[in-house]
Amino acid sequence: MTSSVERAQLILAHDDHNPQDAVVPPIVQTSLFTFSSYEEMVATYRGDLERPVYSRGLNPTVRALEDKMAALELAEDAIAFASGMAAISAAVLSNVAPGDRIVVVRNVYPDAFRLFGTYLKRMQVAVTYVDGTDHDAVEAALPGARLFYLESPTSWVMEALDVGALAAMARRHGVFSVIDNSWATPIFQNPLELGVDLVVHSASKYIGGHSDVVAGIVVGSKEDIGRIRGEIYPYLGGRIAPMDAWLLLRGLRTLPQRVLAHQESALTLARRLCERQEVACVYHPGLASLPAGLRGTTGLFSIVLADDIDMRTFCNTLKLFKLGVSWGGHESLIVPGDVGLQQKSEPNSARAFGQSPQSVRLHVGLEGTEALWQDLSGALVAAHKP
Ligand SMILES: *Cc1c(COP(=O)(O)O)cnc(C)c1O
User: Fold this and answer.
1) Which of 124, 153, 314, 348 could cysteine-pair with 160, CB 3.0–4.6 Å?
2) Topology given in CATH for the domain delimited by 2-252
3) Ligand 1 atom 5 nearest Cα
4) Closest by Cα among 96, 149, 104 to 124
5) Ligand 1 centroid to 46 CA: how many Å?
6) Is the CATH number of domain 255-383 3.90.1150.10?
């Protein structure tokens, strides 16, 4: 594990080629790039010369981010987007056509689930959901499928999948595979090395790491990323802004240290929560042995409160854990499962994501393990119904 962290630290070290010896790369805040001559413009349009033309295509700050992410994921290429969902839709849409069927592991990120259930259905792409821990079920679902979409660990219930084994199955059946690696980050899991074809990240989480950017990235081979560059993003757009790419480059510098700190605090709290009578269940992949290929755990996990714990009092007593969606920043956050279950638009879909009325998702931030434990244990005591 140390070696993969150190490898990442070296990738993130200072670049000697920054202009004017700047230690920080510049934000190239421009929409277009001018040409010095007619000949240069013609050569660029012909493809004889690779240089920036327009920032929806190539922007040097964005390119610097893409190069770092490709290196961290041991990939040939990467393409950055204005959100994780833009990255997911580009990765999936560039690989399906009407009449295709895709296989998706259960408990994926809710908006990915909605993309498959609404948009893809409208495109006449069929979706089969499988339990990613049931390899026989996966094996049975893959033949004839066009794409296999994974997330590991999965959302909410945090099922840590054997990504290498699942990717090998997909290969055997000639099925293209895509994985959401936002939770593990490139520090703890490199799915391309495990045989997956494309990796997507919501960079809004640990890559940015400071809850100040919404962005996404797709990482893969030159050919697969080239297909997205050529076919999908020119029409769908959704590219990241240079300023946001710069913020992600800044966040990346501390990614190895941050995820190590999230790992340690979250694992300590998860183990202590297991001992508490107020807690019926803890979903944290680090409480069991990790599947091959997952080298560590981060700060996001879920618990189920015992029936005699009042959710409202628990949430309202917490001080350091704020009520809020998203995760991956400095701050600790909670999402009560019953809020999702009360969502007006789709009253039953939250159950498809593993949420139950007494469940709570926690993001353990960087405020300090003991302070966070005091906050949690105090709220558990206060929320005990008489
Ligand atoms: C947040 C999230 C996404 C979506 O990313 P956005 O940047 O919010 O569009 C995708 N997958 C996972 C696992 C996420 O947590």
Assistant:
1) 153
2) Aspartate Aminotransferase; domain 2 (3.40.640)
3) 84
4) 96
5) 37
6) yes
